Amino acid sequence: MSESTLVPPPPAFAASAHVSSRAAYEALYRRSVEDPAGFWAEQAARLAWHRPFDAVCDADARPGEIAWFHGGRLNVSYNCVDRHAAVTPDRPAILWARNEPGEYETITFRELQERVGRFANVLRAHGVRKGDRVCIYLPMIPEIAYAMLACARIGAVHSVVFAGFSADALRERILDADCAVVITADEGLRGPKRVPLKSVVDEAVANLDGVRSVLVARRTGADINMKPGRDRWLADELARQRATCPIEWVDSEDPLFVLYTSGSTGKPKGVLHTTGGYLVYAATTHHYVFDARPGDIHFCAADAGWITGHSYILYGPLANGVTTVMFESIPTYPDAGRYWQVVDDLRATIVYTAPTALRALLREGDEPVRKYRRDSIRVLGSVGEPINPDVWRWYHDVVGDGRCPVVDTWWQTETGGILIAPLPGAIACKPGSATLPFFGVVPVLVDDDGKVVEGNDVAGNLCLAGSWPGQARTIYGDHARFLANYFARFPGYYFTGDGCRRDADGYYWITGRVDDVLNVAGHRLGTAEIESALIGHGAVVEAAVVGFPHPLKGQGICAYVITRPEFDAWNREELAGALKEQVRKAISPIATPDRILLVRGLPKTRSGKIMRRILRRIAAGDFDPAGFGDTSTLAEPAVVDDIVALARG
Ligand code: PRX
């Protein structure tokens, strides 16, 4: 696919889209960057404000001090639930697609209001007050939505931890955010697998005196351990509470949630989002990027435990009064037609998923897709990693029958919502490019020396000038780290950590992370985290982890490990297996290295810095020394030959 091949919006779609031409996009975009206060004040009218804001944005004064809609008071739960329950009580708010095919449950806005109210009263009864952090470790069951909205209702701050994280990882996050209440389920279901969530929680909170209450939803009815005085069945607690729960009106800048994500150094960081700006941004991007409207059935197949789920399963669609689908299962259960079965059964109009899922489905061919009608779909979205042009084509031609625009959306946990994406009725696409910035977003490419790269047909480090309402405000408990991570490398800009090309037509192409962060099957992982997990095993002296191109996962994980001499007698495979297990235990199965190479040494400079670019080359199967770059500063050049010999093995 040549990058100049343009795929224009389907004319029938464009005709009735919110933004229906490139010229209309440009006019609105210009307005949004020339008069951001005016533009965002208008967008803020999507929400109901208890008290109007005094100022739209104060973000320019000091780097990293960001505030939007200052002085305004509102409540996210009121905006996502109550105001719709008042007008469209019988409209489905959530359509829950259970793990088993063909099993669905509908939760209307009226029912959602009752359940969120009851849940919020349970939290209050367990001592949760405004500003307190609540840890949510739940599978994709409606309780995860109730729990998040219940926190928002009383001004508590949720910290959702993806239910695939290990006990160690969960414990670390509970401690970091100082959560006194943890919400979980007996077990989760993921296709054919059962996930023992409660026992993971038991291990995570063992001897954590700060955790007062563990509330347990019953999903499978498995026999689990309940610790008296600490653990309670959620159903019993809910039965004790009435459904009416008064709203806690909060300041626009009061925190809404913390969500942990990986960086290039240190432990995962708790990205903090606040109330007004986040919700305005989620609602506005959902409206424009998915061309959303009342009556849509929005099917975002992500997990609510990631930012995609926060913004586009829950907050964006519900703020806009749009029905949202919660999908408990996996794309290949029981077969590769599962998504499309859900689409047909629920008449989904918007589908939003990750390239890694699409790659797996594409491999199974067209038949599982064509078996279903898919005629309800209007917009197809992609998120989380670069989408290969051939996968984009397949999504467009086969899944969408060439009838539906595909929106490749680039953004991050820290950005709160989509920053670069085509508006589906307005922008001609180039498969593989996220195309053009959303309203109010000003991408800037900066070279390694900090010089802004102007013009088109250029590449650089992707930064953003100015602010947008959905921008993260801090790292929980560590503002200095927030400033150092995002605002220090290129002063005056927010640095994304991504590399990017702006082509001759001004289209943006994300080229992947330029820091030591991996994107494995759409999951963001820090190499430093995996290395420290490996070092946690008694056999390991030193480890270096790099990514390599992987046909299904986008990136695979390769670990180079030096072990203690005492372990030389061990069977190599057994040792590698034990090390993989160690990573699973310390982080999650999603972080398991695909390859472990037990090496005698690592290529280091004379000053002791590991030359990762060499390790990346070797992991990619590229053994030609010409590709290793300047190796004259290597302390021990022979180390490289040893590793190559081993990798060729
Ligand atoms: O490298 C970019 C990649 O995912 C990173 C953000 O990961 P996370 O915070 O987990 O959020 C994922 C869901 C928004 C980015 O720095 N990324 C995300 N979307 C795309 C992408 N890379 C290329 N194209 C995308 N559409």
Automatic annotation (TrEMBL):
UniProt-listed Enzyme Commission number(s): 6.2.1.1
Name this polypeptide is given: Acetyl-coenzyme A synthetase
Essential cofactor(s): Mg(2+)
Post-translational modification: Acetylated. Deacetylation by the SIR2-homolog deacetylase activates the enzyme.
Family that this chain belongs to: Belongs to the ATP-dependent AMP-binding enzyme family.
Residue span, AMP-dependent synthetase/ligase domain: 82-467
Organism: Nannocystis radixulma
Record keywords, A-Z: Acetylation, ATP-binding, Ligase, Magnesium, Metal-binding, Nucleotide-binding
Gene this chain is encoded by: acs
Annotated Mg(2+) binding sites: 537, 540
